[in-house]
What does this fold into?
Amino acid sequence: MAGYTGSNNPLLANYFEFVLDRVPNMVYFCQGANLPGVVYGTSVQPTTLGIPVTIPIGNYRFENLQLSFKVDEDLKNWLEIYNWMKGNGNLDQTCNSLPYNTVGSSLGKTSSNGSLIVTNSSYKPKLKITFNNLFPVTLSGILFSSILPESAEVLATAEFAFTNYKIETL
It folds into this structure.
């Protein structure tokens, strides 16, 4: 391939680290993270020729960020996300005591930033994907089972919505 100046090494799925500012117990236990896809909006413009023309309309939609993690035996990392979700809603509150200001922006209290750091084949940081205004939208349950033949680590998943992300080379 003429003119290609990149690395000949493939990107490997286990060369990453995820850091979530608001959930520090997640870093060590994170088992998987995705780089969410992005969808660019389009509109169909009718024509008199019978073939409509698709045109870009300039709005973006991001898929959710998905994280899988090992649950520690004190449930600290799972509870951090659970309590974050409770704090964003009104699970334990009345309608008169919502945890955020409904007049102004509530992002400072309800969201956090996070980073997916992709490493090269030498495990040195190569790319940093910074997610802005993350907040959890789903948290999986935890299944306890006494029928497993041997002890197994408990895994959980969480999905986060966010405003946008930026990719930078390190």
Q: What stands out?
A: The two ends are 25 Å apart (CA to CA).
